[in-house]
Write a structure and sequence with these properties.
Elements lengths: L3 E2 L6 E7 L2 E6 L5 H19 L11 H15 L4 H15 L2 H5 L7 H12 L4 H20 L24 H10 L4 H11 L3 H6 L5 E2 L10 E4 L9 E4 L2 H11 L18 H14 L9 H13 L4 H8 L4 H5 L6 H26 L9 H6 L1
Antiparallel strand pairs: 1-2, 2-3, 4-5, 5-6
Helix pairs in contact: 2-3, 3-6, 8-10, 8-12
Length: 373
């Protein structure tokens, strides 16, 4: 069948039957000659497919692919609206750059990315550019998984990204807790004593809280059911201060959530940020002091107390030990103490070996057994 136009449509369509199957498409073209060529190309493609010659569909532009990408993000992060909003905002910034938006995915290479970085760096800080690059990298990786493209270009993040490293002193902590209103005051205590993320604290339900120790443990505990990463699911001990606070809240709570707003629903993170900003301004504390600093303070204190990175990783729910390692800063004394323990261990083994040779115990002929004592 020849190409045709539908009523009130400016585009040409084509329709034909292939192996008993009706195929109908809009060419999105107003030129009849081009539309006829597209119909012929479609038929040729079907013919090649029948003899095992499959032509790969051309890669879409980033602008066209963005809808499919955000649909995937929305499904994978259905319970994390902030994550969905984050990717949407960063994707919008990428699409503001015409050359990036109109480029097909297989044409986005290191050169175009570097061009984009140089242009964006004139306007925003390295951290902002890096978040946009991370979004582009995830989009291209998904495209690669879905076999839309054959290669993901190397995307290097900018150096010199400024990180918030604000840590509360005990003195500032006391002033802050005295000045901050509820529910942030109680949430702050929980974050300072457990290292919870703000979103994890707001999602906490009373069924996740256990005031009494179990199985011979010394402390009560709470359970994080889900969070930012796969490692977020974890069990955390409760300090006496946290237990006192939770006990007091439980007596007046009628919601399934530990921290709830109106109608018993969870409080929004933005509400916490608003409360926090007002108190921070009244106490004249630096802008680097954000709600997340409460968690950062707790993890930093663990590092200063000599807690190892793997334990911090477990407590924090970090996805990688690399993140946890920045909280551990061994002092010269702690390094020397490590060698001291190693020396004590070696001397202990040596003494056991000497005792065996002197007949103090049963003589063992296998040197491996001596070493393992």
């Amino acid at each position: 069948m020849a190409v045709y136009k539908q009523q009130e449509s400016k585009f040409w369509w084509y329709k034909f039957t292939w192996n008993g199957q009706s195929i109908r498409r809009s060419t999105k073209q107003t030129n009849k000659r081009v539309a006829e060529q597209m119909e012929a190309a479609h038929k040729t493609g079907l013919a090649k497919g029948e003899v095992g010659i499959v032509e790969k569909e051309p890669a879409p532009t980033l602008e066209l692919f963005s809808e499919r990408f955000m649909q995937a993000i929305s499904v994978r992060s259905a319970e994390k609206p902030r994550t969905v909003a984050f990717y949407q905002e960063k994707l919008n910034r990428l699409l503001e750059y015409p050359k990036m938006a109109r480029a097909t995915l297989d044409a986005i290479d290191e050169a175009l990315i570097e061009e984009y970085v140089k242009e964006r760096r004139k306007q925003v800080a390295p951290a902002t550019v890096n978040r946009q690059l991370a979004t582009l990298r995830r989009a291209l990786r998904l495209a690669h998984e879905w076999k839309v493209i054959d290669r993901v270009p190397r995307i290097r993040l900018l150096q010199g990204e400024r990180t918030r490293e604000f840590v509360l002193t005990r003195e500032i902590e006391a002033k802050y807790l005295e000045a901050v209103p509820e529910p942030l005051a109680d949430i702050a205590i929980l974050m300072l004593d457990t290292g919870l993320r703000d979103g994890e604290a707001l999602a906490l339900k009373w069924t996740d809280v256990h005031m009494q120790p179990a199985g011979g443990a010394k402390f009560g505990y709470l359970q994080v059911q889900k969070g930012k990463s796969a490692k977020a699911r974890r069990t955390l001990s409760l300090t006496a201060r946290a237990v006192d606070m939770l006990t007091a809240r439980s007596k007046t709570s009628s919601s399934e959530f530990v921290f709830c707003g109106r109608l018993g629903k969870p409080i929004l993170v933005t509400s916490l940020d608003h409360q926090h900003s007002k108190v921070r301004a009244s106490l004249k504390l630096p802008a680097d002091f954000v709600v997340h600093s409460l968690r950062h303070t707790m993890l930093t204190r663990l590092g200063l107390l000599g807690v190892d990175a793997f334990t911090i990783m477990k407590i924090a729910g970090h996805s990688s030990i690399t993140v946890s390692q920045r909280y551990v800063h061994p002092s010269p004394e702690s390094v020397e103490r490590a060698f001291e323990k190693l020396e004590e261990s070696r001397q202990g083994v040596a003494r056991i070996g000497v005792g065996i040779e002197l007949g103090i115990g049963e003589k063992l002929s296998d040197p491996k057994i001596v070493v393992n004592c």
